[in-house]
Amino acid sequence: MLNFRQFEAGPDPFGRKYLVLLKWMQTAISIRHSDSVDVKFILQDSESREEKTIALLLPDLLALSKARGRAITDPWCCRLAAQHLLHLVATGEDMEKDLVTMLPDQLARCASEVEQEEKAAVASHA
């Protein structure tokens, strides 16, 4: 899932699939006085529309960036959040929440998944 701006998620535990659209990404200090990067998505299915904000805590993001030797960029943050959103939809975990804060182990899992996608994309173009 290299396109984090528009993608499909699901099915969820009830068999629904969603069209997911990136709404925005911004530092949450400006909106919630939180030391995090917030990524907001719109999820639409045939019957409903809802919004989910995935929060990446900056101290955890900095530690992950250092451990992976990767710069913190807007696309990387959006892809980490999108990867976690895919997990939430598939499992139904935290779907009742509008704001979901990722834990360090969740960030690490998503970073590994993003890296695997990148490697596969490079290999397919070689």
Radius of gyration based on Cα positions: 14 Å
Query: What is the molecular shape?
Result: globular
In sequence order, what are the helices and strands, one letter per element?
A: EEEEHHEH
| Poorly predicted residue ranges | none
Could you tell me the number of beta strands?
5
**Amount of helix:** 25-40%
Structural class: alpha+beta
Helical stretch tally: 3
- Biggest sheet: strands, sense, closure? 5 strands, mixed
Strand content: 25-35%
For the largest beta sheet, what order do the strands appear in spatially? 1-2-3-4-5
The number of domains is 1
In round numbers, the mean pLDDT is 94
Q: Gap between N and C termini, in Å?
A: 19 Å
Brief overview, please?
With about 130 residues, the protein is of the alpha+beta class. It is built from 3 helices and 5 strands.
Can you put this structure into words, describing what you see?
The protein is of the alpha+beta class and 126 residues long. The chain has one domain (6-120). 40% of the residues lie in helices and 28% in strands. The chain has helices at residues 58-68, 74-91, 104-124, and strands at residues 6-9, 18-27, 36-44, 49-57, 99-101. Strands 1-2-3-4-5 form a five-stranded mixed β-sheet. Helix 2 (74-91) packs across helix 3. The two termini are 19 Å apart. The mean pLDDT is 94.
